[in-house]
Amino acid sequence: MNRAEGRRRQADRAMGGVPQRPWGQVERQMPPVRIISDDQVSAIHLAALDVLGRQGLRVLHAPARALYASAGAEVVDETVRLDAGLVAERLKTVPAGFTLEARNPARNLRIGGGWCVYGAVGGPAYVMCNDKGRRDGTFAEMCDYMRLIQGLNVIHQEGGGPFEPLDLPANTRHLDIYHAQIRLLDKSWQTQTLGHARTMDGIEMAAIMLGTTPEGLCHRPVLLGIINTNSPLQLDVPMAEGLIALAAHGQVNVITPFTLAGAMAPVTLAGALVLQHAEAIAGIVLTQIVRPGVPVMYGGFTSNVDMRSGAPAFGTPEYAKAAQASGQLARHIGVPFRSSNVTAANEVDAQAAYESQMALWGALTGGAHLLNHAAGWLHGGLTASFEKLILDAEMLQMMDAYFEPMATDPGALALDAIREAGAGGHFFGTAHTMERYETAFHTPMLSNWDNHPNWLSKGSIDARTRANSLWKELLAAQVDPALDPAVDEALHAYVTRRKAEGGAPMN
């Protein structure tokens, strides 16, 4: 890269004074961690098949039971049992990777192989910042949060509504969320999957966004939605409806059991993974019954609980091991893998940092293709934090820099620079250093690398305070991406009509 190109890329990184890496996905070249042996992977897989074949899954949605039965599953009352042959046959049609379209084609995302998507926090009940503390979220604040997601290059995808705008009616707020996602983002966004109506509204509005129809999306993956099984071993009506609607229209289900060891799953990590694997397989198979070849993902969310209180624990060593093992299980059945960046911390503090770093390390070295809640998650998923969004973005930038391959070409080996500096010299002024001055290292967003005398004379602010000023700078500089007025008008008309119809039922 020449110096002019280096200056251009450096300028592209800065927004409102906030240094950033350029937009884009970094392809991981190193193989994922293998935390358990191939024999152990096989043992967990066979145990999960035993659960599905003998005990089965309770499916509360009659149409879903009918779909399973049509494919040869044994259905007795609400229990669905899947034999190993049926599972193997349906897993054959799952694509190993796919492209997820965004409103801006330059923001399309690759999923599979060494590629990973970083999706922002989605779904908390509350919002939090240094200035106002934790509180109920409003639509206006939610829109500001989305603007930050748009402005942060390292975040590839909005996570389905960063927090609930509780100033809007529950039966129609999803329509306002979808409209805001399309207006304020030209990136990929996740849809909601709680029931048929909410899911179809997302599909309809995504089709309007791209100038097509829901049927026109059937071979164009645009939306990604999370389907949580009701662990242990239950698929409820709203989630089944959402799964079927997404799969029928060619969109991406992320089947994610919520298996907390000791609570909704066995207390042993291996037992929790057996349950997770069984539930994930059952959901994946259903997507392939609905539409063979439709993209789907294997969601791993196994963690442990504090056995003294029953509270979920996140970002623990057990969580990291489960994420890495989950990646192996997903690869064993040939399905792209989703994991998460999580913490149980109630404040943006050291606990939040070390738990999130542990979770990030486990998920990304475990080969995750979707890192959900990649930035902003706090309080065990109950809260979205403005400051945590910035701190997580910094850690994601550092992980991306880590995953970039190390060059060993003659220029990188630097023999000329070593000769020029000589014995006892330095490399600040060598030709080799000067040629790479602007591109040698990736500028962090938050790290304070001032020397000790400067720190003593000027004082220092903590990372949380610095993050508070950075998100405000970023928000002030953000310009909403242009949207075709005709598209916006069509979206407004759709939202108005659906609100008049009553929106979505309260499941």
Automatic annotation (TrEMBL):
Q: What is its EC number?
A: 2.1.1.-
**Disordered: where is this region?**
1-24
* Positions with biased composition (Basic and acidic residues): 1-12
Signal peptide range equals none
Q: Which Pfam families does the UniProt record give?
A: MTTB
Q: Which principal EC class is assigned to this enzyme? A: transferase
The GO annotation for biological process reads: methanogenesis; methylation
Protein's recorded name: Methyltransferase
